[in-house]
Every structure is written in structure tokens, then in C-alpha cells.
Amino acid sequence: MKGGVWRVVMLGLAVAAAALVFLGVEITQLAADDRTAFTRGLAICGLGLLAVWFVFARLSRHFRDLDRLSDRLSGTRSRVDLEPISGGRSGELARLAEAVNLARGGERGLGDGPLAGGPLGGGRAERALRAVLALTGDPVLVLDELGRVEQLNPAAARLLEVEEGADIGKSLLRDDLARAMERARGGGAPVTAVLRRIEEGELSARIADLGLSAGAILSFPARGMAHAAGLSGKRTLSLRAAPAAGPLGDEEPLAALPFVALWVATAGAEPDSGPVIAVGTVRLVGSRIFPTVSLTLLIDPIDPVPAEATARHGIGTAMVAGERPFAAVWPAIQDALHNCIAVGIGIDASLAALAQSAAQAGIADPALPPSLDLGALATALDPALTGASPDRLAEAFGVPRHPRTGYMGEGPQGEALFQAELAVALLSRLTERGIVTQGQARALTAGVGAHVSPQTSP
Predict the structure, then answer these.
(1) Are residues 20 and 156 in the same domain?
(2) How high is the pLDDT of residue 54?
(3) Burial (CB count <10 Å: 0-12, 13-18, 19+), residue 436
(4) How high is the pLDDT of residue 16?
(5) How many CB atoms lie within 10 A of CB 104?
């Protein structure tokens, strides 16, 4: 959209700005002896430049909105667009965008909902969707591409305190939602994400993308809601308990077992000692990694983090200061570990650290998962790797080592992703040796201890 009109307008603004600068220079030369005239002239020039800047900013936003509207019309957008149109709903561009949405629905004979173009057609599709929402116990809502609530069930209305037609950005942070919708669209499948509330707290959600200009469906599983309610402190919900873990017996094939790669950092001066200050998890099933089903948490231990601990894992006092305490984040950690086998280098030490912090937080029964130590597996496959560091294991099994920057996105999550990738490499080696069940893998590692701490420096 930034064609001839854009160039003409920008040229005019540039000429006006240059004229004001030239006028300011002339004033400094002609009125240097008259302080009053000098000050008044410069003030006028300054106000003129400020007005030019204001006009430039408004026009830039206007033309940017035209670009976004053009993308919506052409259907070539590659990013989810939840940013509101400038001028609010009463602005001319916002009204034009609304008219486009209505016209598109009318052309296809869809009715008002994003799913109305399906095989049911028109009003029947909307009635079917409303019936499904009413029958669903979990909070579920349908958003349009602009982030407005098109339909929702009573559970979602109570949870988010929104109604049909409301802007979801008044309840949830748009940046979190936009990133989740991007992942759902890019992967072509629903994704799990943690969405932050505007006021306080977080919610675990499942997001399914409905396609370009069609919006998304958000579902808030009951267990995820329970954890979010505990974190927010805003409301108390009566929710069902997490279901009992399914059997993960020795005869279960490794290729079908649910694993969770776990990385834990502690604030002790010695490895594996002190309170837990960071947790990273990545879910995998057999050799398939699900990087979007992950958890990254920093935890405030109250006391300063010793320099020795920071040197091990790169996480210092300033990074965790102001984060939530362990008791507040434990439900999210428990949910990430639920009904999985925890894997990692020195995984038993990681689980012991979680158990110790849970006990210190007054959590009576942390219900930790079974574990399978990657260091012990590597040693069983190759005795020369006994006591090997994470970097040595990465080199031996051809696994890329992620940067250990200590930053939230590259620390816990990067380390957990490395553990997941190492687990996949080890499972591949086990399969080559004919070891295909959990019982066979445990028999292989019988008597082999964990030789590498999860926080051992490379």
C-alpha cells in the first residue's frame, strides 16, 4: 500500500521538517541579540517539528494498518495479527476491516461463526458449535482473527470474565496468545501453551488454529486451570483431580513410552545441593520430541545464589529475584511430569532436588515419576563414557549442544531440549542392539550408577 501517496506524503513531511530546521538556523543568526524573539522563534520551530513528528507517526500507523488490511484481503499473511486497528472500532479502517469480515462471510454463505463454512453450513453449523460448547465441561472459546470472542461456553465466561464480542486482550496477554497461535498454525496441530493473565497469574491452554482470517479455538484443561488458579490467587475453583497415572510396565515398548526430559538447577554451593531455582522440561514419546510441550521456570530461593552455583549453570541472583517461590510453581512442574518417565543425565539427583524443595515448601507427597538415567544408559552402551560430562556425551552421540547462556530461553529450556535429543540418540542405539522395551533398558543399566550430575559444568 506504500505506493505513490506514501512517497508524496513523506516527501512533503521531509520538506516541512527541512524548512523548520532552516528557519531555526535563521532565527539563531538574526535574533541572537534579542533573547525574547530568539526564544519565541525557537519555541515555534520546536512546536512545528513536534507537529511534523506527530503527523508522521499517525500516517505511518495509518499506512501500516492499510498494509495489514491488504494482507487480510489477499490471504497472504504469514503472521497472526492480533494488534488492534488504530482509531479503535470507530475508526474508518476498523469499520472497513469489519465490513470486509462480514462481506467474506456473506460471500461464502457462512453465517457469523468461523466454522460456519464447514459441511453443515450456515446456521446449523453455529447451532452445532454452540451445542458442543455447552456440552464441554472445560472452558472453551472461539476467537476471530482480531482476538475478539466469537463464542464461548459458561465455564470460559466465568474463568476469563469475558463475554461474546469482548476483546480477549483485556483478559490475556496478546503476545503470549499470538505466539501460541503462530505455533499452532506453523505446526498444523493444536499446541499447549501457558497464557498470562492481564491482572495476575497464568493459565494452561490448548490452542487450535482455524486458518487464515478464521481465528482460533482455545481450551483450558481442568488440570491446567487448577494450577493457574493456584498461581493467580484471584479465585478458587472446584476442579477434578488429576487422573491416576497409567501403567508404564517393563513390557511397554520404548518407542511408545511417554518421556519427559528434565533439567534442574539448584542454588547450593555443591552440585545437587540447595533449593531448586530453575526447571526445564521437554516432552517426548519414544524418539519423537515435542518442543512446544515444554516448561521453563525460574524460582526465587529468597537467599542469594552462591557464585559457585552460578558458575555451574549460569543462573544468578539477579535472574531469579522476584520470581515465584517453589510452592507456587510446583503444580505446573507436577503437571509437566505427570504420567511420564523422567529422563536426564543424573536424573535421580534432579528428582531428589525437587523432592527436597517440595519438603521444604511443605508439600507432603510430591508424587515424583519413575526415572531412566541417560548417563547410566550411555555408560552401559559404551563403558568408556563412564563419568562423561554432558559435552562429552553430546560429542559421542552426535547431539548438538545448546548455548549455556543462563538466559531463561536458552538455559532451562535449552538444557532440557539437549536432554531430550540425547535421549532420542540413546533410544536409537538401544534399538540397534535389540533393546526395545523398558524392562530390557533397565536390565541393561542394572548396577550402573549415574555418573554425571545434571549441573556438571562442561
Answers:
(1) no
(2) 80
(3) middle
(4) 79
(5) 16
Kindly list the distances between the CA atom of residue 422 and the CA atoms of 398, 400, 427, in Å, as whole numbers in the listed order.
9, 9, 9
Q: pLDDT at position 450, please? A: 42
In a domain, 127, yes or no: yes
| Distance separating alpha carbons of residues 187 and 448, to the nearest angstrom | 39
- Per this entry, what is the length of the chain? 458
Residues 195 and 271 in one domain: no
Q: Which helix (H) or strand (E) holds 189?
A: none
DSSP for 231-299, please give it: HH-S-----PPPPPPPP--TTSBGGG-EEEEEEEEE--SSTT-S-EEEEEEEEEETTEEEEEEEEEEE-
Q: Cell digits for 288?
A: 519423537
Per DSSP, the three-state class of 371 is: strand
DSSP label at residue 204: E
Which structural domain, as residue segments, surrounds residue 390? 254-445
CA dihedral for 305, 298, 280, 411, sign (positive or negative): negative
Residue 249 located in a structural domain: no
Residue spans of the chain under pLDDT 70:
1-6, 29, 31-33, 63, 65-137, 186-188, 211-214, 222-248, 292, 402-411, 447-458
Closest-CA residue to 142 (of 205, 196, 210, 239): 210
**Judgement on whether residues 327 and 420 belong to the same structural domain of the protein:** yes
Which grid cell is 266? Answer: 539448584
Query: Number of helices (H) and strands (E), helices first, in the chain?
Result: 15, 10
CB atoms within 10 A of CB 236: 8
Residue with cell 484443561: 221
**Quick check: 364 and 282 in contact, CB under 8 A?**
no
Residue matched to cell numbers 469480515: 101
Structural domain contains residue 104: no
Handedness of CA 7, 9, 11, 13 (dihedral sign): negative
pLDDT of residue 245: 44
Does any domain span residue 95?
no
Nearest to 447 by CA among 352, 350, 373, 345: 373
Q: Do both 215 and 292 map to the same domain?
A: no
CA dihedral 419, 422, 427, 430 (to 10 degrees): -130
Of 454, 258, 284, the C-alpha closest to 370 is: 258
C-alpha cell at 125: 453449523
* One domain, residues 428 and 303: yes
- The pLDDT assigned to 403 comes to 56
Longest dimension (CA), the chain: 96
pLDDT of residue 109: 36
Q: Structurally, how many domains does the chain consist of? A: 3
Q: Residue 147: what are its φ and ψ, rounded to 5°?
A: 90, 15
Site of grid cell 470507530: 90
Q: pTM to 2 decimals? A: 0.50
**How far, in Å, CA of 196 to CA of 330, rounded?**
17
